């Protein structure tokens, strides 16, 4: 009986309306007997596991008939909706109070119903899942096991026993060997957030979490939006103004030749600028260099790929209008002339028309076709659907486009000469890197969730910043394909480069499958040098991922880069908030490792008492005062990617630093149910108690407690704002949908927001 998605937490007035809605829904679910059985109840509740559905069902089935009538359902829900805190706590206690004969009785009652025993014949008997009035260790263990399954958490039986013991010892105040209702209530009072959630309408336990309310005022009209996007908006304003100015000047200069010619000339002048500007926006090496200059504070260099796409659409639109205006003008001339048709104007070279040898019409039509093909095959549906080579080869036609533009427009070369030379220079440098010889993949590690960890021998003169990315080519996977991946190792790691690649597309899946295949027999490999063996040993000591599979097959690869990203700003921030979702941790892995190296260099120790501390990390290149690292994962296995690195970071900061910790980590597991869900209250309490006792988290093994569910961004950013450790900048790498949510919260709190873009 789940209300429609989008329903909000109910007020007292809405409760009555919701009960009327339940009555209506009951009629659509119940059978001819006007009652709901267990299977129908499970379907309506849509829970992952049947245990809690059965517990709710039994508690609603007050007469023990094995079915729920409308009267029973409304009576139970009314008690939960309008009941006091004690009523809701008692319901929670009854859910966890599992009779030891539950399974046997459940089977018997199921058989009775299937063979058609009337409900009245079964009434008066003890409910098949009724409790005993207290919770013993075995019952608690059963409930916690189902809580783990409901939250998609896998722990060994020994760990389940530790959780059971921790919660039982804390709740069994009188050491009687069982937990009573009063003892459970007393223990819950030590968890204020649980008691707070119990005061919410208990009917919300049976419906999805409420969505965040949107402001009636569009975010684009808010002052915070304009403040946080001032450089981007100023750039777009300047870009639009320049195009309007170029169009107006060219149109006015040719106005005497007719309206269609004026429009065509205006669009042509804009095309001169935009087609050259497309090259500027893809000068990755120049843009990487500009990130280290004051220009980066004014020009939105982080958005260069987005602007490249925008300018591409503008070019196609201008070219369409330009072509259409010329066709209209040729049609007018053909009607006036009477001797030459429109086709002759379009397909024949005519002196005086424009272009090299009067071929403006022919080169223009060719350009229109090439531009349309390039944009069509550059769409996300083509690039991400396993047809990257189609995008790659059609996009290479930019060479033909620029050649035709030089032949088509007599003044285009003036606009193109500087960006064109820089573009060619960058390509020559990249080609020189590739011709210098392939690099050897030292090790390959297959991680959970189809993540491929490549350890590549680092070139001698390869210098990069934390968070930079490279283009990778592996001929064994695809000869001509180059794909961008963030470098996940720190620059201080001199001998190897790390890449963590999630299998999301055709190329990345082929990469994972290639190294997953059994290695064919091969001649005895060349013995590795002592330095390379030591390099591999240190590399694996740092990775340390559980369940990893080392691969001995070595392949050749080529890299192009490095190229800068918004994360380069992190070290010049004062308070940086790093948010990674899933594999989005990779740029932050490099940054966190670099911070760890710098932290280790500045760590001091007293020779007398051996007390250690860290000097201020701030210097000319790093003004950081505080770093908050937030990692959001869907399930437990995803944390295995970098858990060893995070453990080392925690160990480096074992002692409390003056003024608080420099680095704080926050882990979230979205598949785990939170403390506001009745199906997880006991589990989360047990995890909290055991973490406090052992000083480590049961899910990841870190000291940082893994929080269930998704972050409450309002609370997270509110806490960051209250710390007042300097100007806050938020750096995100993950899905576009989550980026929009975080960006909106950053605008609300006045934080600068940066997103990883390739």
UniProtKB/TrEMBL annotation:
Q: Which residues form the EF-hand domain?
A: 48-83, 166-194
* A GO MF term: calcium ion binding
Pfam families, alphabetized: EF-hand_5 (PF13202), FAD_binding_8 (PF08022), Ferric_reduct (PF01794), NAD_binding_6 (PF08030)
Q: Name one GO biological process term.
A: defense response
Is Transmembrane tagged as a keyword?
A: yes
Q: Where in the cell is it found?
A: Membrane
Regions that span the bilayer? 233-252, 258-283, 390-407, 576-595
Which intervals hold domain FAD-binding FR-type? Answer: 434-569
GO cellular component terms attached to this protein's record: NADPH oxidase complex
Membrane topology qualifier: Multi-pass membrane protein
Gene3D superfamilies in UniProt: EF-hand, Nucleotide-binding domain of ferredoxin-NADP reductase (FNR) module, Translation factors
* Keyword annotations from UniProtKB, A to Z: Calcium, FAD, Flavoprotein, Membrane, Metal-binding, NADP, Oxidoreductase, Transmembrane, Transmembrane helix
Specify the protein name: NOX5 oxidase
Taxonomy of the source species:
Eukaryota, Metazoa, Chordata, Craniata, Vertebrata
Gene symbol here is: Nox5
